[in-house]
Amino acid sequence: MKLLITGGAGFIGSNFIYYIQDRYPDYELVCLDLLTYAGNLKTLDKALKKNNFCFIKGDISDRETVFSLFETEKFDVVVNFAAESHVDRSIENPSVFLQTNIIGTQVLMDACRKYDVKRYHQVSTDEVYGDLPLERADLFFTEETPIHTSSPYSASKASADLLVLAYYRTFGLPVTISRCSNNYGPYHFPEKLIPLIISRALADESLPVYGKGLNVRDWLYVEDHCSAIDLIIHNGRVGEVYNVGGHNERTNIEVVKAILAHLGKPESLITYVKDRAGHDLRYAIDPTKINNELGWSHQTGFEDGIKKTIDWYLNNRSWWEDIISGDYKNYYEKMYGNR
Ligand code: NAD
Ligand code: DAU
User: Fold this and answer.
1) How far apart are CA 125 and CA 128, in angstroms?
2) Å from CA of 189 to ligand 2 middle
3) Which of 72, 269, 278, 302 is the most core-located residue (most Cβ within 10 A)?
């Protein structure tokens, strides 16, 4: 089996490459990644040591690059992780989100049609459903929840999902979509809440919490997301959407305090800052469909997962210290300087 994994130099894509290499050592893997600010070839150091893995630098929205790659490689399965993924950046500059997340998806699917790829899998997000009220803990996102987006990021991901379903209905392209909740774990870029808090707390720097810190996210350890995609590409029904989540809801302030407690750092580092524009209140996934149809359930709860994640950041300092010492400094100053 030959898989194309796009966006594999980023957080979830790289974890997926390691997951697949571990479970299916005979599969041939090709990673296509533009190496934007979020992509890091160092992350794939170990993967690159295997003969049946190869890395190609390129843009999923560049038709020529994508079609010539498909012409030479003859993929069986394409898993599209490549995206602009940070909500805050989409508020600053939406254009690149539309280009990569929507046009990139279209170009990949056009290539899948032309070269008879057996499965196109779109890695989507629970953010396409918008948000749930804080005071209604009984409500969850199901696959039937209407699309209702808040940020340019989520609107671009929802647009891509609609295109994927249109390519299934109109052209019969064999597609599947997964919509997962917030991931955390190794190789998470330090602009996102959990690695940002870990890296700044370790340096005794202030910890920016948006608004009152009461927004709720449903956290899933990244390996559990990888196992869900593995099941969907092998056994999932074509044309279907699968929600992925493990009922690990936490307010942001609970997450920050849990990290501080593990690190033995004081809560006085917490600084409440101006809220994110259009900030979604609560995400919570109902994973009944993937549980029942594919037998998937999450294996790592939040307490174990956050401990493993913190240990990873403590043991892999050079990975994230290199990142935060470069351009990231300017990013942080721009986004948080006057907040
Ligand atoms: P990430 O930002 O860490 O990685 C994205 C990767 O895509 C990077 O390696 C980047 O270089 C690459 N990329 C960006 N533009 C590209 C382009 N035009 N062509 C080729 N490569 C390009 O993102 P992530 O957090 O790993 O998310 C991966 C996917 O999972 C995204 O589609 C995201 O929407 C989705 N998702 C993320 C989460 C989460 O919590 N992080 C949850 C659910 C779904
Ligand atoms: O739900 C899935 C989504 O999860 C993915 O589709 C996105 O790609 C991924 O980035 C993530 O989006 P969020 O916006 O939920 O993640 P982020 O880590 O940016 O923020 C998590 C919560 O923490 C959110 O409520 C905003 C808040 N936050 C974030 C940052 C960066 C803060 O309070 N302070 C911060 O500095």
Assistant:
1) 6
2) 12
3) 302
